[in-house]
Design a protein that fits this description.
Layout (H helix, E strand, L loop, with lengths): L1 H30 L1 E7 L4 H12 L4 E7 L4 E6 L7 H10 L3 E7 L2
Antiparallel strand pairs: 1-3, 1-4, 2-3
Length: 105
């Protein structure tokens, strides 16, 4: 019985250890994402102006805008970030109101 318990424990540890790198990679990928909910973002022209605004910034790797959800998803370059007050100012200066900023996935 003890041999079975040891084998089962070793098998469980092997499974957990094999999953850890994947989980760590997912966490690292999520650390560089910013999701911003906004009011007033309703047309394609507005979306393109926001894409250009953030696309010109050196911290941004990519941007996706969902007009139906009123959401801006920004992928930051590794190790780069834009703080919330700066995001708020950029969005507000573009004529939109931020309702929520969420970092990560």
């Amino acid at each position: 019985m003890k041999l079975f318990q040891k084998t089962l424990t070793l098998a469980a540890l092997a499974i957990i250890c094999s999953m850890t790198p994947t989980f760590a990679a997912e966490q690292a990928a999520c650390a560089d994402k910013v999701n911003i909910k906004v009011n007033g973002l309703v047309c394609d022209f507005c979306a393109r102006s926001v894409e250009k605004l953030f696309g010109d910034r050196q911290e941004v790797a990519g941007i996706k805008i969902n007009l139906d959800a009123g959401q801006i998803d920004i992928d930051m370059k590794a190790g780069k970030s834009i703080d919330d007050p700066t995001l708020n100012k950029l969005i507000k200066d573009s004529g939109f109101d931020i309702t929520n900023i969420k970092r990560g996935c």
